[in-house]
Amino acid sequence: MGEHIEITKISSRGQVVIPKEIREHLGWEAGDHLAVELDGETVILRRLQLESLRPERRRPVKVGLIK
Fold first, then answer.
1. What is the distance, to the nearest Å, from the Cα of residue 46 to the centroid of all Cα atoms in its chain?
2. Are 7 and 19 in contact (CB under 8 A)?
3. Using an 8 Å Cβ cutoff, are 29 and 20 in contact?
């Protein structure tokens, strides 16, 4: 921990910008889902792997009729 530190602030709507350099390092993209955990005074963000929610990554489903 503490490998890289950036300063950001919370908007009036409760939003926080994760700096681009950090998002790129982690491979996070717009639309990714994050789990937000509270550990004492520390907030932990973890990217969730919800592949089925991203239409461009869905696998095609083959449908056939049985005679």
1. 7
2. no
3. no
Query: What values do phi and psi take at 38, rounded to 5?
Result: -115, 125
Q: Tokens representing 3?
A: 């490998």
Supply the pLDDT for residue 66: 59
Gap between the Cα atoms of 59 and 51, Å rounded: 10
Q: How far apart are CA 22 and CA 4, in angstroms?
A: 8
Q: Which residues of the chain have pLDDT under 70?
A: 1-2, 51-67
Instruction: Give pLDDT, residue 3.
Output: 75
Q: What is the pLDDT of residue 5?
A: 87
CA distances from 33 to 39, 41, 43 (A): 19, 22, 16
